[in-house]
Specification:
Rossmann fold; alpha/beta; 10 helices; UDP-galactose 4-epimerase, domain 1; two-stranded parallel ribbon; binds ligand F7E; seven-stranded parallel β-sheet; binds NADP nicotinamide-adenine-dinucleotide phosphate
């Protein structure tokens, strides 16, 4: 069989880097789309240089998407690019909609015009469930988004469903619950905590300022979740799937495990700061991924405790190397 080409938008992000590794291991030609920046932002894909092809394009610019698709002619398109940090979506609601919502229509429209045979994956989110109407949340649970980000993801989700039904595109939406890794952005709570723990352990900081410790999330490992993205595009018929672990944990539990990993008591270091409380909170998320288990044969492999410890260890190692180099 001839080599398949996959186009990944958001290749410089957490998921883009893990998905690239997975697709390369399966023999794909991987093309990453990135937006132009005055300085390079290749930290997560540095080790993949020379193995992936990079093309400039921006979700805000329709013609750039058409050009990339014409040039690359992919069999699979993974739309991972987005403004993905929930608090920023209150500060920049219009820009978040442009990237995270209308950007999906731009890429679907480009596929419809240039490459309608390509299979399309949309990175939908458990933030669409927001103020949850059912516990646990499945593909059947109605949405009730609680942030401009959540609203934007609902739009992208329904556009994906609509293009599938209107134009018969192989377009699927993965409703992924929170997934983390040592490559997670430093502003997200897991990484903020593991980086903070490492700094306190190494004497680089004394305290960690946090928001709502009672919020609960269903956290999994990003390396496991990108496998589900790929599996969704290998099916005979396009469909949407919830991807989750089926467990929920509070931010306080996360903090407790992370500090315990380095032998510290979190109560001596964590300070609650109202600056990190959100205008509207998503209190509880827990996913029911039985459809993914049954149809895709997908199961998460890394436990919550294993994930937090992996991230703490990676941050301690990274910051220790940096301190010893000074
Ligand atoms: P991430 O680390 O924030 O990466 C986002 C990527 O989008 C970056 O590569 C970023 O590029 C790119 N991007 C942003 N705006 C763009 C634009 N206008 N044009 C082109 N590229 C643009 O996010 P992630 O955690 O990997 O998540 C991947 C996707 O899954 C996102 O759509 C996110 O909303 C969604 N999702 C994530 C989770 C999760 O828990 N991680 C759960 C559900 C859904 P720069 O490097 O240039 O900023
Ligand atoms: O917050 C609470 C905060 O920013 C998780 C994105 O990938 O997952 C992510 O969205 C929880 C919230 O992720 C702090 O209030 C407490 O309840 O790590 P987060 P998120 O908002 O759940 C979904 C699935 C996505 O799709 C998004 O793209 O933690 N929390 N104290 C805090 N959160 C942060 N960031 N910082 C704190 O100090």
């Amino acid at each position: 069989m001839s080599q398949k080409t996959a186009l990944i938008t958001g290749i410089t992000g957490q998921d883009g880097s893990y998905l690239s590794e997975l697709l390369l291991s399966k023999g794909y030609h991987v093309v990453g789309m990135l937006r132009r920046s005055s300085s390079e932002n290749f930290e997560r894909i540095e080790h993949l240089r020379g193995k992936v092809q990079l093309e400039y394009g921006d979700l805000l610019d329709q013609s750039s998407l058409v050009s990339v698709l014409q040039k690359v002619q992919p069999q699979e398109v993974y739309n991972l690019a987005a403004q993905s940090f929930v608090p920023t979506s209150w500060q920049q609601p219009v820009l978040t909609s442009e990237f995270t919502a209308v950007g999906v229509t731009r890429i679907l429209e480009a596929i419809r015009q240039v490459n309608p045979g390509a299979r399309f994956y949309q990175a939908s989110s458990s933030e669409m469930f927001g103020k949850v109407l059912e516990v646990p949340q499945s593909e059947q649970t109605p949405f009730y988004p609680r942030s401009p980000y959540g609203v934007a993801k609902c739009y992208g989700h329904y556009m994906t469903v609509n293009y599938r039904e209107s134009y018969n595109l192989f377009a699927v939406s993965g409703i992924l619950f929170n997934h983390e890794s040592p490559r997670r952005g430093l502003e997200f709570v897991t990484r903020k905590v593991t980086d903070g723990v490492a700094r306190i352990k190494l004497g680089l900081a004394k305290e960690l300022r946090m928001g709502n410790l009672q919020a609960k999330r269903d956290w999994g490992f990003a390396g496991d979740y990108v496998k589900a993205m790929w599996l969704m595009l290998q099916q005979d018929t396009p469909d949407d799937f919830v991807i989750a672990t089926g467990e929920t944990h509070s931010v306080e539990e996360l903090v407790d495990i992370a500090f315990a990993r380095v032998g510290l008591d979190w109560r001596k270091h964590v300070v609650t700061d109202p600056a990190f409380i959100r205008p509207a909170e998503v209190d509880l998320l827990i996913g029911d991924c039985s459809k993914a288990k049954n149809v895709l044969g997908w199961v998460p492999e890394v436990s919550f405790q294993g994930l937090v410890e992996m991230m703490v260890d990676a941050d301690v190692e990274r910051l220790s190397k940096r301190s010893s180099a000074l």
